[in-house]
Amino acid sequence: MTIRFTDLNVIYHRKSPFEYHALKNINTTFENGKFYGLIGHTGSGKSTLIQTMNGLILPSSGTVETDGIILSKKSKQKLIHQAKMKVGMVFQFPEHQLFESTVLKDVMFGPMNMGIAEEAAREKACYYLKLLNVHESLLEKSPFELSGGQMRKVAIAGILAMEPNILILDEPTAGLDPLSHDETMQLFYDVYKEIGITVILITHDMNDVLEFTDEVKVMSQGELAGEGRTADILTDQNFMERYDLEVPHVIQLARDLKEKGIALNGTPKNTAEFIRLYEDWRRNNA
Ligand SMILES: Nc1ncnc2c1ncn2[C@@H]1O[C@H](COP(=O)(O)OP(=O)(O)OP(=O)(O)O)[C@@H](O)[C@H]1O
């Protein structure tokens, strides 16, 4: 499912003393089936941009086209609702949205609310809970008895069970310990591979951006500052410095080695790849 932003502007509190131009002439496309990173400093406009996709915020001018549904300043509720159904949003701390008495009921709630029959909703719920490694023995438990990491998986299964065409992850690992962080990111990636959904990851963690995303879009002060293949953008030292973006750990390590005359043959995406490339270099230069 393609999402196209055309001449998009969002101005908060228009014609008031608090008027703020949060998005300025955004023209860009998110293509079907890719895993995107959306990065930029606090206040650069990332959340505003993604909230225009499902009509939580309407454009002040310009359009947002989601799988053929075009939202603009004057869009009516019916159209906004159609766009909403296509976009699944995982906000920070999604587990705060859990409310049902059991894990299964909570995940079934979304599909049933969309008019899907109970049995079909149960099937979907079980499928997505399994995909997210939530053990069967937990299905009849209260979600509030689970650990933080498990609760988060249940909440995310609930969003996936509505089968959106695009999944937006807004700082999805906030507050998780390092182990749960890694496990959750890997799970997202596995789910993405399994169901072939378009994913947009908003994060300040450049290591995750490098490891998991195909392409990246960079926001700065309400404008699209850059976009392209993740490895190309994150290794562009001038660009990264200009927008004061943190360089991923392994790219910095590769750069340090290069200064010592050790040039790796490729850009490592994670520590394991870094070690592999370094071992290759050692073998070739023994
Ligand atoms: N409801 C609102 N009313 C007025 N200004 C807002 C509103 N929401 C956001 N803004 C302003 O718009 C700008 C962009 O905010 P936005 O939340 O989109 O940035 P962000 O890149 O997602 O930041 P963060 O990384 O902190 O989540 C900020 O200056 C913010 O203060």
UniProtKB/TrEMBL annotation:
Pfam (any one): ABC_tran
Plastid keyword on record: no
Cited PROSITE patterns: ABC_TRANSPORTER_1 (PS00211), ABC_TRANSPORTER_2 (PS50893)
Any one GO MF annotation of this record: cobalt ion transmembrane transporter activity
EC number: 7.-.-.-
GO CC list: ATP-binding cassette (ABC) transporter complex
Domain ABC transporter: 3-246
Main localisation: membrane
Top-rank lineage group of the source organism: Bacteria
Subcellular location: Cell membrane
Membrane protein topology class: Peripheral membrane protein
Swiss-Prot/TrEMBL keywords: ATP-binding, Cell membrane, Membrane, Nucleotide-binding, Translocase, Transport
Function: ATP-binding (A) component of a common energy-coupling factor (ECF) ABC-transporter complex.
Binding partners and assembly: Forms a stable energy-coupling factor (ECF) transporter complex composed of 2 membrane-embedded substrate-binding proteins (S component), 2 ATP-binding proteins (A component) and 2 transmembrane proteins (T component).
Family the UniProt entry places it in: Belongs to the ABC transporter superfamily. Energy-coupling factor EcfA family.
Protein name as annotated: Energy-coupling factor transporter ATP-binding protein EcfA2
